[in-house]
């Protein structure tokens, strides 16, 4: 499609936008033409905001969350319980859990999940640093907040073998029917597992 | 949502992406995190490609199409018929018509459509320059390739009054049932108009 554009800058912009996941070439053209209709200061400001992703995003030395300096606001917050570490795959998971407003511990962002299919092994992830954190703390709780698919379970099992030890409590997110969900909407795997993992009723 | 981001650069990028039409804040976060996972050269190249929309896109002095210099490749192409001018609303319409491979004339990009509701009047559009082009040519054909809604018809009527004259043939795109479409899928307005504007059958 690119060679059809009479402006190389427009063609390059469309090609760049279309490289984003889930954005087709027609949407990319629509977005590029939308930008082009803006005053040029706005376009420049837009491009600079994206460019700063390359230069101004830092990662927390402790938990590997994105932040502005060496330490993220969560690790720096003395009111958070640094002996409870929630292990997640990505930055997005931290934002999702923070959005619940329910969690007062800290995080550890692995930066991915073990996936032999995609060639991602334990050494590609922030696993050694988790092991060090856990060892340094001595007694702590580590919560596995990983996805429920094969990769997530493989990663959880691998982490368990690396960090299990005296004083280390290891938990995982509860799984079951969604809260408020009726039985008729649950898939049979979820329903079967929920039955198997049934809990004492608390009246 | 912005204040929740532990990195200001990430928050700014998400906000910028979410300002695009049709992109919600969740998609914006997904796209920003996708970019963030790329090597920083790629992020910078991406941002520069968008930034060049502000600086490197020029407009053809004749037809106002986007291009790289003073004249677009279509106006510069001596094989195109410069006495047939297709009047369109936007850059995107030129790309759509070029994609058909059926048109050998030139274009005139109005840069919008007359819309009293949105406060866009004739003086906001490239109408005076169209009038000059038509006058300079003397005899020519002007094709109105505008949308079929009220704004499109208002604009066509206004243009007609400005450019009509001796030697100026004015035509408009054929409207009717889509080629290959069955009657059962046509809306009743289109079907009614197609009946009214019926054509001699050519066996």
Task: Describe the 3D structure.
Two copies of one chain form a homodimer. Helices cover 42% and strands 13% of the residues of chain A. Chain A is an alpha/beta fold and 203 residues long. In chain A, helix 1 packs across helix 2. The radius of gyration of chain A is 22 Å and the shape is globular. Chains A and B meet through helix 1, helix 2, helix 3, strand 2 and helix 5 of A and helix 1, helix 2, helix 3, strand 2 and helix 5 of B.
Describe what is shown at a glance.
The structure is a homodimer of 203-residue chains. The first copy, chain A, has 203 residues and is of the alpha/beta class.
Shape of chain A: globular
* Major β-sheet annotation of chain A: 4 strands, parallel
Would you tell me the overall average pLDDT of chain A? 90
- What is the rounded distance between the termini of chain A? 64 Å
- What CATH architecture of the largest domain in chain A would you give? 3-Layer(aba) Sandwich
Please estimate the helix content of chain A.
Answer: 40-55%
Tally the helices of chain A: what do you get?
A: 8
Spans where pLDDT lies below 50 across 5 or more residues of chain A = none
Strand content of chain A: 5-15%
H and E order of chain A: HHHEEHEHEHEHEH
From the 3D structure, determine the CATH topology of the largest domain in chain A. Dna Topoisomerase Vi A Subunit, Chain: A, domain 2
